[in-house]
Specification:
The complex is a heterodimer of chains A (303) and B (342).
Chain A lengths: L1 H12 L1 H18 L1 H4 L45 H37 L1 H15 L3 H11 L5 H28 L2 H8 L4 H37 L11 H12 L5 H41 L1
Helix pairs in contact in A: 2-4, 2-11, 4-5, 4-7, 4-9, 4-11, 5-7, 6-7, 7-9, 9-10, 9-11, 10-11
Chain B lengths: L1 H28 L3 H6 L5 H10 L6 H13 L13 H36 L4 H15 L2 H18 L27 H7 L3 H38 L2 H8 L4 H38 L5 H10 L3 H29 L8
Helix pairs in contact in B: 1-13, 5-6, 5-9, 5-11, 5-13, 6-9, 7-9, 7-11, 8-9, 9-11, 11-12, 11-13, 12-13
Classes of the chains: A mainly alpha (303), B mainly alpha (342).
C-alpha cells in the first residue's frame, strides 16, 4: 500500500508521465466504451451513408436523420465511415491484440524459460536452441512467414503468430534469472526437504524472477501494438471486419495521394500518441522502480 | 581461437539447418504442391504422375535431402507466379534493397553522430532533453506512418495544393520514366554514373531520398541514444580528465579522445542493424513501390507464391547468420577476453 502511494506521488511529480498516463487512460476508456461514445457505429455496415464519403473534417452529414453524428469531427472515409468512430473501434482492436499477446507470450516465455533454466541439460539446449533461431531474425519477418503460411482465420491467427515470435524475450530473461536463483541456499533447502521440481520452479523461483519480466512486459505492449499495426498495414494482419489502427492507415493511404489526408493522418496520430504515451510511462516506471530493484538485490546479496 | 571459430561456425550452420528444415516442412505441408503445379483440373493418373515426377512419393528424409542438395546449389524452386527460378528473382532485386539500406544507414549516421554527441556533452541540459524526447517519439512512430507523412509533405502538398516553396519529391519507383540506363551492377546510383548520365543520376537520387529517410528514421533515433550513452560513459573516464587537465579544448577532448573510444560499440551495433534495415525495407519498399526484394516478398504473399516466400526466408537467413557470425568473430578478435561458453 505504501509502495503504491509512493508510486502515485512520484507520478504527480513528473509532468510528462502524468500527461502520458492521462492520454493513455482517455484512449483506453474511449476504446472500451466505443459502442457508447462513438458518434457512429462503424462496426455496423447499416450505419454508413455512401453520400457522406470523403467529407473533410468538421463537415456536417448529408442526412441528419437518426443515428447520424452531429458533425464529422475528423471527416469520413471512402465509404462514408466517420473517422473518429473508426479510430475508437480500431483502438479496441489494437489494444486487445497488444494486451492478449503480452499476456500469452509472457506466460509461455516465463514457463519455458524457468523450465529451461532449472532443468538444464538437454531440455535447456532444445528450448534455447529454438529461441536462438527465433532471435536470429527480426520479429516482423518471422511473423510475416507464419501469417503467409497460416492464411485462414480471424483474430486468433494474428495474436498467436505474434505470440510465437515474442515469447523468446521472456524466456531468455527468465532462464538467466533462474540460473542465478537455482544456486541459492533456499532452493537447496527446498530440494533437501523433498519438494517436487514443479513446486520449486513455480512456488519459489517464479516469484523471485518476476520483476525484470514485468518491466519487459511493459516495454512489449508498445512494441507489440506497433508490430500488429505494421502487419495490418502490410495487409496480413487483422480481418477486414475488425480493422485495427494499422489497417485504417493502410485504407486511408490509398486516398492520401489525391489529397484526402484525414483518412490516414488521424488514425496514424492516434497510433503514435498511444505508443508514445506507453513508452513515456515505461521509461518513467523503469527510472522509479530501478533504485528499488537495485536496493532489493543488494539486500539479498548481503543477507 | 580455433576452438572459438569452430563453435561459431557450428552454431551458424545449426541455425541455417533449422531454418531449412522449417522451410521444407512448411513448403511440403502448407497446401498440396501437386495442386499448385497442376491446377484444379486433372485426372487421377496425372496427379500420381506429377506426384512421382516431383519426388513426393519418396520418404520424407529423401525429400529433405534432395531439397537441401538443391538449396546448396542455389536451386530454391520455381515461382508459380513468375514461372522463373525463385532464387534468381530475389537476387535480381537484391541491389535495389541494398542500395536503399545503405543510403538509409548513411543518412541516419550523418545525423545521429552530431546529435548524439550534443546530447552527451550536457546530459541533463535542455537540448539533451529535447533530443531525447524527440528520439522517443521517433521510436514510437511506426516506419509506415513516417513514410506516409513524408509522401504527404513532399509529394501531395506541393502537387495538390501547388505549394511551391516545398521541394516536390517522387513518391514511387527508382527513376523517372525515360531516364533509365542499362543495368550493369543493379545499383542505380552506380549504373547512371557508369553510363555517364548526370540527369539520370539526379533522378535516381531524388527517388532514393524519401525511402531512405523513411527507413533511416527509426535507426536515427536508436543510434542517437546509443551514441549518447557511449559518449557519456567515455566522458566520465579518467583519461578524459587527464586530457582536460593537460589543457586541451573541449572540442578536442570530445571528438579526438572520447568519440574515438565510443565508436567501438556504436559501429558494432550499426553493423548488426544492417540486417534489421533489410527486414524493415519490406515496409518501406511497399509504401514507395520500390522494386526490391521486400516488395517482391509482399507481392508473393499476396498471390501465395510459396517458393518465392521460402526462398526469401532462406536467403535472408544466410544474410543474417553471416552478419551475426562476422560480428561474433570480430568481437573475439578485438577483445580476446571474450570467450564463448562451451
Amino acid at each position: 500500500m505504501a509502495r503504491r502511494l509512493h508510486l502515485a506521488r512520484q507520478l504527480a511529480r513528473s509532468h510528462a508521465a502524468l500527461a502520458a498516463a492521462a492520454v493513455l487512460a482517455l484512449m483506453t476508456l474511449g476504446a472500451l466504451f466505443a459502442p457508447l461514445v462513438a458518434p457512429q457505429r462503424t462496426d455496423e455496415p447499416g450505419a454508413l451513408h455512401l453520400a457522406d464519403a470523403f467529407k473533410p473534417p468538421m463537415s456536417p452529414p448529408y442526412d441528419r436523420g437518426q443515428g447520424a453524428p452531429g458533425v464529422y469531427l475528423m471527416g469520413t472515409d471512402d465509404q462514408g465511415r466517420d473517422v473518429l468512430s473508426a479510430i475508437l473501434f480500431g483502438l479496441r482492436v489494437s489494444l486487445f491484440v497488444g494486451f492478449s499477446v503480452v499476456i500469452l507470450s509472457s506466460i509461455l516465455g516465463t514457463l519455458l524459460g524457468i523450465v529451461s533454466g532449472y532443468a538444464g541439460g538437454r531440455v535447456d539446449s532444445v528450448i534455447m536452441g529454438i529461441a536462438d533461431v527465433f532471435l536470429s531474425f527480426p520479429s516482423i519477418l518471422v511473423a510475416l512467414f507464419i501469417l503467409s503460411v497460416w492464411r485462414e482465420g480471424g483474430m486468433e491467427r494474428l495474436v498467436l503468430s505474434i505470440v510465437s515470435v515474442r515469447w523468446v524475450v521472456y524466456a531468455r530473461t527468465a532462464r538467466g534469472s533462474t540460473l542465478a536463483e537455482r544456486e541459492k541456499d533456499y532452493i537447496s533447502a527446498a530440494r533437501a526437504l523433498g519438494q517436487r521440481p514443479v513446486r520449486i520452479m513455480f512456488g519459489h523461483i517464479l516469484p523471485n524472477v518476476m520483476s525484470p519480466l514485468a518491466i519487459i512486459a511493459a516495454v512489449e505492449i508498445g512494441m507489440v501494438i506497433m508490430l500488429e499495426a505494421t502487419l495490418s498495414f502490410l495487409g496480413v494482419g487483422t480481418p477486414i471486419t475488425q480493422p485495427s489502427l494499422g489497417m485504417l492507415i493502410k485504407n486511408g493511404s490509398e486516398d492520401l495521394l489525391s489529397g484526402s489526408w484525414w483518412i490516414s493522418l488521424f488514425p496514424g496520430l492516434a497510433l503514435v500518441m498511444l505508443v508514445f504515451s506507453i513508452n513515456i510511462l515505461v521509461d518513467w516506471l523503469r527510472d522509479v522502480l530501478n533504485p528499488h530493484i537495485a536496493a532489493a538485490e543488494s539486500a539479498a546479496v548481503q543477507a | 581461437m580455433t576452438r572459438t571459430l569452430t563453435i561459431l561456425v557450428a552454431r551458424s550452420l545449426l541455425v541455417l539447418l533449422a531454418v531449412s528444415l522449417a522451410v521444407f516442412l512448411l513448403l511440403r505441408f502448407a497446401g498440396d504442391p501437386v495442386l499448385a503445379v497442376l491446377g484444379p483440373r486433372h485426372t487421377r493418373a496425372q496427379y500420381e504422375e506429377t506426384r512421382h515426377s516431383l519426388g513426393l512419393d519418396q520418404p520424407l528424409r529423401v525429400q529433405y535431402a534432395r531439397f537441401l542438395a538443391g538449396a546448396v546449389q542455389g536451386d530454391l524452386g520455381r515461382s508459380y507466379h513468375h514461372n522463373a527460378p525463385a532464387a534468381g528473382l530475389i537476387l535480381e532485386r537484391l541491389p535495389a534493397t541494398v542500395e536503399l539500406a545503405v543510403a538509409a544507414m548513411l543518412l541516419a549516421g550523418a545525423f545521429a553522430f552530431p546529435l548524439g554527441i550534443l546530447a552527451a556533452v550536457r546530459p541533463s541540459g535542455p537540448l539533451a532533453r529535447i533530443l531525447l524526447t524527440g528520439s522517443l517519439l521517433g521510436i514510437s512512430a511506426p516506419t509506415f506512418f513516417i513514410g506516409l507523412m513524408l509522401i504527404f509533405i513532399f509529394s501531395v502538398v506541393p502537387h495538390v495544393w501547388h505549394v511551391t516553396w516545398l521541394p516536390e519529391l517522387p513518391a514511387g519507383g527508382r527513376i523517372a520514366g525515360g531516364m533509365e540506363v542499362p543495368r550493369q551492377t543493379g545499383f542505380l546510383l552506380i549504373d547512371t554514373l557508369l553510363a555517364g548520365r548526370g540527369d539520370s543520376f539526379l533522378s535516381a537520387l531524388r527517388h532514393l531520398l524519401m525511402p531512405a529517410m523513411t527507413l533511416g528514421f527509426y535507426y536515427l533515433a536508436v543510434l542517437m541514444r546509443l551514441i549518447r550513452g557511449a559518449m557519456i560513459d567515455e566522458l566520465a573516464k579518467d583519461y578524459v580528465r587527464v586530457a582536460r587537465a593537460k589543457g586541451l579544448s573541449d572540442a578536442a577532448v570530445t571528438v579526438r579522445h572520447a568519440l574515438r573510444n565510443a565508436l567501438i560499440p556504436v559501429v558494432t551495433v550499426m553493423g548488426l542493424q544492417l540486417g534489421g534495415l533489410i527486414a524493415f525495407s519490406v515496409v518501406t519498399e511497399t509504401i514507395f513501390q520500390w522494386p526490391g526484394m521486400g516488395k517482391l516478398l509482399i507481392d508473393s504473399i499476396g498471390v501465395n507464391d510459396q517458393p518465392v516466400i521460402m526462398a526469401y526466408l532462406l536467403l535472408v537467413a544466410v544474410i543474417f547468420v553471416t552478419i551475426n557470425f562476422t560480428v561474433d568473430v570480430l568481437y573475439t578478435v578485438i577483445d580476446p577476453r571474450i570467450r564463448l561458453r562451451s
